[in-house]
Amino acid sequence: MRNMWITIGAMVIGALLGVAYWHFFGCREGCAITSVWWRSALYGAVMGYLAVGMFKK
């Protein structure tokens, strides 16, 4: 149960970092991932999930 909350927390933090990246550095057109906020959030959530998965047994 604890591992699930850690994974969800990492995904939320990743999504927030993805939106922050979009807001401060993302391009407005022509970029596949950072052109709209929800794609950046989704990409960040996936990266958060994968980052936590590296440390699981």
Descriptive notes:
There is one protein chain. This protein is mostly helical. The chain has one domain. The protein is built from two helices and no strands. The protein has helices at 2-24, 37-53. The mean pLDDT is 89.
Summarize the structure.
The chain is mainly α and 57 residues long.
Which overall shape is indicated by the principal axes computed on the Cα atoms? elongated
- How many β-strand runs? 0
Number of domain units:
1
Average the pLDDT over all residues and give the rounded result. Answer: 89
Structural class: mainly alpha
Q: Major β-sheet, in short?
A: none
> What would you call the quaternary organization?
single chain
Number of helices: 2
Radius of gyration: 12 Å
**Residue share in helix:** over 70%
Distance between the termini: 15 Å
Low-confidence stretches: none
List the helices and strands in order: HH
Proportion of β residues? under 5%
Structure characteristics:
70% helix, 57 residues, single chain, mainly alpha
SSE layout and pairing:
Blueprint: H1 2-24, H2 37-53
Helix pairs in contact: 1-2
